[in-house]
Amino acid sequence: MPRPTRCVASKTPRAAIATTLAFLALISGVRAGMAETFAYVGNADSNDISVFKLSESGEMTPVQTAAFTGVEKPGSSTPLAITPDHRVLIAGVRSQPFQAVSFAIDPKTGQLSHVGNGPLADSMANIATDRGGKVLFSASYGGNKVALNPLSANGVVGEPKQVIPTGLNAHAFLPSPDNRFVFATNLGSDQVLSFAFDATTGTLTPSDPPNYKVPEKSGPRHFVFHPNGKFVYLIHELNGDVAAFTYEAKSGAWDEIQRTTALGFNGKPWAADIHITPDGRFLYASERTTNTLTAYKVDAASGKLTTVGSVPTEKQPRGFNIDPSSRYLAAVGELSDGMTIYAIDQSSGALSKLKSYPTGKKPNWVEFLSLP
Fold first, then answer.
1. What's the Cα-to-Cα distance from 35 to each of 61, 87, 108, 251, rounded to whole Å?
2. Are 20 and 26 in contact (CB under 8 A)?
3. 237-282 pLDDT per residue, tens
4. Are 339 and 329 contacting, i.e. CB atoms less than 8 angstroms apart?
C-alpha cells in the first residue's frame, strides 16, 4: 500500500513541472525565433539610407546610416527595392552618372554593407525587382522610358538589357503577383502600359492591348496589388483619385470598379504614394498639398474601398510603408527630414501617431523587412 501512495504523490508534481518546463521552452523558443523587423529610409539629399529597428511596441531604434559609395551629387529622390530573398537592398541614384547601389543585408542585424554599383538607363523614379529576383525594373519620369537590367548573383545591377520608350512621365514599373506581366504608369499621358514578362529569358513584350487609359489629366502615379492578387489600387497625382480595379491574372486585364479620392479639401492635389496592409484589410494614400495620410477599409469580397479618415503627417509625404505584421505605418517627409510611426487600429484601420524620428536629408522612400 505505501508504494502506490508514494508513486501517486510524486507523479503529480513531476507532471506539472514537466508541463511547465515544456511550456516555458516553447515560449522561449518562439521568442528566440521571432523575426526582427527593420525599416530602411532612402534620403535623397544626404545620399544615404537610415536603418531603424522596429520593436513590438512600435518603437524605432536607429541602428545605421549607410552612405552611397561612389556617389557625389544628390538626386531628386531615392527609390529603394529589396530582393525577394531578403539578401540585397538596391537604391536608385538620380544624379549623373545614373546608377543603382547594391547593399548586402546582414540577416541578423539588418545592417547594410556595400556590394557594388551598376548602371541605370536614366534618372529612375521607381525601381523594383521581378518576383524571382533575377532582374530590376525601372521607370524614368523625365526620360519617358522604362528599362530592364539583369541582376547578378550578388545583387549588383548589370547593363540595361531592354530600354523601352513610353508615353510621358513613366512613374512606376511593377510586376504582377505571378510575375507574368509588368505594368508601367505614365503620369503625363494618363495611361498604364502592360507588358508580358518572360522570366526564363528575362525579356518584356508589349501586351495586347498594350495600355489602359485613365481619366484625362488625372496623372496615374503609383499602384499596389491586393495580397490575394485579385485587385489593383492606383493613386493619381494630379486629381487625387484612388481607383480600384479587378485584376484578371490569366490575361493581365484591369477593370475599374470604383473611383474615390485621397482628398479632404478643394486645393490643387499632389498625391504621392499608396500601400496596402500585408493582410489586405486596409489601404493608405499620401497627399503632399495637405501633408496627410488617408485610410480606407478594403472589402475582401468586392475589393471596394470605404474611407476611414485622414490624419496629418510629415511635411511633403512622398513615401511611406507598412510593416509586415500590418500593425504599423511609417511615413517620411521630404521637407521635414523626419519619419513618423503610426499604430494601425486592427478593427477600423484608423491611424494613431506614436512617435517621430529624425532621418537623413529629404527622405522619400521606406522599405520594411522582417529577418530572418
1. 16, 15, 10, 36
2. no
3. 999 999 999 999 999 999 999 999 877 666 789 999 999 999 999 9
4. no
